[in-house]
Automatic annotation (TrEMBL):
This is 4Fe-4S ferredoxin iron-sulfur-binding domain-containing protein. The chain crosses the membrane at residues 26-47. Residues 60-90, 97-131, 207-238, 247-275 form the 4Fe-4S ferredoxin-type domain. GO terms for molecular function: 4 iron, 4 sulfur cluster binding; metal ion binding. It comes from Sulfuricella denitrificans (strain DSM 22764 / NBRC 105220 / skB26). The lineage of its organism: Bacteria, Pseudomonadati, Pseudomonadota, Betaproteobacteria, Nitrosomonadales. Keywords: 4Fe-4S, Iron, Iron-sulfur, Membrane, Metal-binding, Transmembrane, Transmembrane helix.
């Protein structure tokens, strides 16, 4: 009896096995190479993101000087009474380990009066007054010593700092409750918000959770009534394009960029924000 099947050739199996193994090695090389390239590329991500402007603690030097002088010791973080100061993580490149403030999460409300972070800084990265060889950018220095409302009745009501860290700005006027003519009742940022502030009528020296201080306002003026600096912000009548007069939060020259207005704004996202490192008139 005959059959059409040809006997298997052992050599073909060897060749096929060898080709399969070569293909596997080739694929492993591609995957390994891609992994190495991906890992090495990660090193550039922090460098790229390092150019993002960060809000620094009060009294911070200009960014280039701050980056070169701060030793990332964390002393400013430890003394902040409202824990507004954080340390940058690895994904922030040149800024890794450097102190910054995220105003929306927790603003600096000057609860410490004397600005403890400046006193705690061992290198002069945070200062009350810059050395003469470090010029100040236009608009960063405030015209007059800022008056802290919590100290207004004290013999010396001013803060020692003379330069702003940023400048508040009404970024979304259409979302602002005051502009809409609306009031506000309840907890400014909700029951889950962990931010704290000093309320003089409660305790001058002890900041309390914002959620523990509800409001009942016929017209929302949270950004105005909680601003710690005298004359930094007010509600002003502004005539819109339709000829309607609307009460509008208006930022004035004494603004230091503390971020309290941004933190307390009850709308999401905040109608008023602080631009880090921005000077008056810039």
């Amino acid at each position: 009896m005959t059959t059409d099947k040809k006997p298997a050739v052992p050599g073909n199996r060897v060749v096929n096995k060898r080709k399969l193994e070569e293909r596997r090695r080739f694929l492993r090389s591609i995957i390994l190479g891609a992994a190495v390239l991906g890992i090495s590329t990660l090193g550039y991500i922090p460098v790229a993101s390092a150019w993002r402007v960060r809000m620094r603690p009060p009294g911070a030097l200009e960014e280039s000087d701050f980056l070169s002088s701060c030793i990332k010791c964390g002393q400013c973080v430890q003394v902040c009474p409202v824990q507004a100061i954080k340390l940058d993580d690895i994904d922030h490149g040149f800024g890794v380990g450097l102190p910054y403030i995220d105003s929306r999460s927790q603003a600096c409300d000057f609860s410490c009066d004397a600005v403890q972070c400046i006193l705690a800084c061992p290198t002069g990265s945070l200062v009350y007054k810059k050395p003469v060889f470090m010029p100040t950018r236009n608009g960063m220095r405030v015209a007059n010593p800022p008056i802290l409302l919590a100290k207004e009745k004290d013999p010396e009501p001013t803060l020692n700092i003379r330069e702003r860290t940023g400048l508040a700005r009404l970024a979304r006027p259409d979302a602002c409750l005051a502009v809409q003519g609306k009031g506000f009742k309840g907890q400014a940022r909700g029951a889950d918000f962990k931010g704290r502030m000093r309320f003089i009528e409660v305790d001058r020296w002890k900041p309390i959770p914002l959620r523990d201080h509800p409001f009942d306002l016929q017209l929302c003026d949270l950004c105005v009534r909680t601003c710690p600096i005298k004359g930094a912000i007010s509600l002003q009548p502004v005539v819109d394009k339709d000829g309607n007069t609307r009460m509008t939060p208006t930022v004035h020259e004494p603004c230091l960029g503390c971020g309290v207005c941004e933190m307390i704004c009850p709308v999401e996202s905040a109608a008023i924000v602080v631009d880090a490192r921005k000077g008056w008139g810039a």
